[in-house]
C-alpha cells in the first residue's frame, strides 16, 4: 500500500521548482506537513482544499517517513 501512496508524490522541475508535490498539483509535500504540524486534521485539510484526497495526505506522511529513515545522523562540525 505504501508504494501506491508514494506514486502520488511527483517531481517535476516545472512545478513548484521541482519540490516533491501531490499528484502534479501545486501542493508541495512540505506544505501538507506544515498544515498537519499546525494542528489541522486530515478532514480540515480536505475541507479547505477540495482537490486533495485523504490518500494524498497519507502519501505526504509516507514520503516524509521515507526521508527520515536513515541509519545514523552525524553532526558536522564547522
From TrEMBL:
Q: Which InterPro entries match?
A: DUF433, Homeodomain-like_sf, WH-like_DNA-bd_sf
What is a single Pfam family found in this protein's UniProt entry? DUF433
Q: Which PANTHER family match?
A: SSL5025 PROTEIN, SSR2962 PROTEIN
Output this protein's name: DUF433 domain-containing protein
Q: Which organism is it from?
A: Funiculus sociatus GB2-A5
